[in-house]
């Protein structure tokens, strides 16, 4: 791994539950003999972002980030095309990229697996020039990101919290009209949700291929209240991949996607982070843009 810097979100509930000192000791053991030098730091969320940005120009060759998809997205932006290697520890709620890199969901197992991870190169994507690693969504997805922030830190369990967030998101989701352009296609559509993914996801929200060099656009069209409920459920569970009756959820493969609408700005949830973006939304694939540590 060469010189390795490990940056951990000290406020992550997963880390707190696992025991910060136990995790640190496990990292020391996992990295022993596998890197020439290691530096492990537990940081507040704001400091974590600043350290990730500084790490991009440091003399460390491997940067390991322990956090959620938002922190990992920041690291992907900082390290894209840098020649440095990004390692990911799953300290968030969804952990999409960590799952796709076959990192165990259990923190202690992931720490031990890190020592056996090997480098590979994967694709990234961009929204209006901003790099992301997994997905970006409008409509229901932006409402879901907003609702998840509202229930974060509440005394509910994680699964109950996700359920409450989904209910709130569904109640706030209304159809909107979009102009969508892809490589060889253009259409106007009235939708409940739009999702753009970096490479293709399976029904279990796992990407079997991370360097296919393509985006996939998913459109959940509006067709009444009942379809709104089923489409939202299908989008959350990935069931539209297996269900012939998908209530108007369509998928289009492309390398470039442009989304326009009447408003000048719109909220998009990108790798779990809610951002207000300028219209039109311009998505593009970044083939083989990031070197990462992966299991298997």
From TrEMBL:
Record-level GO cellular component terms: cytosol
Protein name per UniProt: Uncharacterized protein
Family annotation (SMART domains): DAGKc
GO biological process annotation, one example: methylglyoxal biosynthetic process
PROSITE patterns in the cross-refs: DAGK
Organism: Pseudorhodoplanes sinuspersici
One GO MF term: methylglyoxal synthase activity
PANTHER family referenced in this protein's UniProt entry, alphabetically: METHYLGLYOXAL SYNTHASE
Protein origin, superkingdom: Bacteria
Entry's transmembrane regions: none
């Amino acid at each position: 791994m060469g010189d390795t810097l490990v940056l951990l979100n000290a406020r992550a509930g997963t880390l707190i539950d696992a025991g910060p000192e136990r995790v640190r000791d496990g990292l020391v053991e996992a990295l022993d003999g596998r890197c020439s030098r290691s530096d492990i730091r537990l940081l507040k969320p704001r400091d974590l972002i600043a350290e990730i940005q500084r790490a991009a120009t440091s003399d460390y060759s491997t940067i390991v980030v322990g956090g959620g998809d938002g922190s990992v997205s920041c690291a992907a932006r900082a390290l894209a095309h840098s020649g440095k290697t990004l390692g990911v520890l799953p300290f968030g709620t969804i952990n999409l990229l960590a799952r796709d890199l076959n990192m165990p969901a259990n923190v202690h197992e992931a720490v031990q697996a890190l020592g056996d991870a090997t480098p590979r190169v994967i694709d990234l994507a961009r929204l209006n020039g901003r790099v992301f690693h997994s997905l970006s969504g409008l409509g229901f997805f932006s409402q879901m990101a907003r609702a998840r922030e509202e229930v974060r830190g509440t005394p509910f369990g994680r699964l109950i919290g996700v359920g409450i967030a989904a209910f709130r998101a569904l109640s706030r989701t209304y159809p909107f009209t979009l102009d969508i352009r892809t490589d060889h296609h253009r259409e106007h559509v009235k939708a409940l949700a739009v999702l753009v993914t970096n490479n293709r996801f399976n029904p279990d929200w796992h990407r079997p291929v991370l360097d296919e060099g393509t985006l996939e656009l998913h459109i959940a069209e509006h067709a009444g209240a009942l379809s709104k409920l089923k489409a939202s459920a299908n989008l959350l569970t990935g069931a539209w991949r297996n269900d012939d009756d998908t209530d108007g959820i369509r998928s289009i493969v492309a390398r470039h996607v442009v989304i326009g609408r009447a408003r000048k700005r719109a909220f998009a949830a990108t790798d779990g982070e809610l951002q207000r973006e300028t219209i039109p939304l311009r998505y593009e694939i970044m083939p083989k843009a990031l070197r990462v540590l992966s299991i298997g």
